[in-house]
Design a protein that fits this description.
By secondary structure, the protein is of the alpha/beta class. The protein folds into 2 domains: 4-231, TIM Barrel, CATH 3.20.20.60; 237-262, no CATH class. Helix content is 42%, strand content 15%. It is built from 11 helices and 8 strands. It has helices spanning 4-9, 24-31, 44-47, 59-73, 92-105, 119-127, 143-146, 156-172, 184-193, 214-217, 235-252; strands at residues 16-20, 37-40, 78-82, 109-113, 132-137, 176-180, 198-201, 209-212. Strands 1-2-3-4-5-6-7-8 form an 8-stranded parallel beta barrel, surrounded by 5 helices. It is globular, with a radius of gyration of 20 Å. Bound molecules: 3-methyl-2-oxobutanoic acid (KIV). 3-methyl-2-oxobutanoic acid binds at residues 20, 39, 41-43, 82, 178, 180, 201, 211, 213.
Length: 262
């Protein structure tokens, strides 16, 4: 999948796999994989920088990681970059500047958390030819207002609000919506209500696709095991074994060998 129209065309068809990436080497692995679409998430703040939340990500930081990922993908996948904390809340000119930075870095689309209060910004970006992906449910940039990283939309009113906002995102011209940490029944309702792909994370099996953080599903973040993450590889264990073997070979004198010397 290389383009936004390719993504939209998958509504109701083969499910869409999305992975985060933050660096050129992750992107090279993804470029050689069948994974459909890559997101440079503001989760870079926690996954790469070890921050407890995503607030420290700025447009410049996302742009720098987007450029690295774009180099690694070399046009092989649809590349989406996250609007970081407050970037959609400073009015249309600031949002246009942020989108310009991210698209010039190599993103083909941007992802923006929330809807209420900045639907005008979303419409303006879409009207300016910038593809926008929405993000509802657990929106980590609002973690303090939400009282923590909790499942959203359990109560009827909260579920109705998410469904309403999802419809508004589609009406604003978004080409897809990420739905994070909501009951699977709500995710199914949103997925069938929209004519654009809904990508779940912690939202059950009835969406048009899934997104996970690269380090989480490959076992590179062993301390982090929420219910919605399945570990598809034990890369962390492999790295730990490699580190121990390297250390031992240096210390017992078997590395470097004659063949590894000039
Ligand atoms: O920042 C991120 O990585 C995300 C995805 C997990 C949806 O927003």
């Amino acid at each position: 999948m290389k383009t936004v129209p390719d993504f939209k065309a998958r509504k109701g068809g083969e499910r869409i796999s999305v992975s985060t990436a933050y660096s050129c080497w992750e992107a090279r692995f993804l470029a050689a994989s069948p994974v459909d679409c890559v997101l440079v998430g503001d989760s870079v703040a926690s996954v790469v920088d070890g921050e407890p939340a995503t607030f420290s990500a700025t447009p410049e930081i996302i742009a720098r990681h987007t450029a690295a990922v774009a180099r690694g993908l070399a046009g092989s996948k649809l590349l989406v970059a996250d609007f970081p904390f407050l970037a959609a809340r400073r009015g249309i000119p600031a949002a246009v500047d942020c989108a310009a930075l991210l698209l010039r870095a190599g993103a083909q689309a941007v992802k923006i958390e929330g809807c209420d209060g900045h639907a005008d910004v979303l419409r303006h970006l879409v009207g300016s030819g910038i593809p926008v992906m929405g993000h509802l449910g657990l929106t980590p940039q609002s973690v303090h207002a939400l009282g923590g990283n909790k499942v959203q939309g359990r109560a009827d009113a909260a579920a109705a609000s998410i469904l309403r906002q999802a419809r508004e995102l589609e009406a604003a011209g978004c080409f897809g919506v990420v739905l994070e940490c909501v009951p699977f029944t709500l995710a199914a309702a949103v997925t069938s209500a929209l004519g654009i792909p809904v990508i779940g994370i912690g939202a059950g099996p009835l969406t048009d696709g899934q997104v996970l953080v690269f380090h989480d599903y490959l076992g590179l973040n062993p301390g982090f095991q929420p219910r919605f993450v399945r570990r598809f590889a034990d890369a962390g264990e492999s790295v730990a074994r490699g580190l121990a073997a390297y250390d031992a070979a240096v210390k017992n004198g078997t590395f470097p060998s004659a063949n590894e010397s000039y």
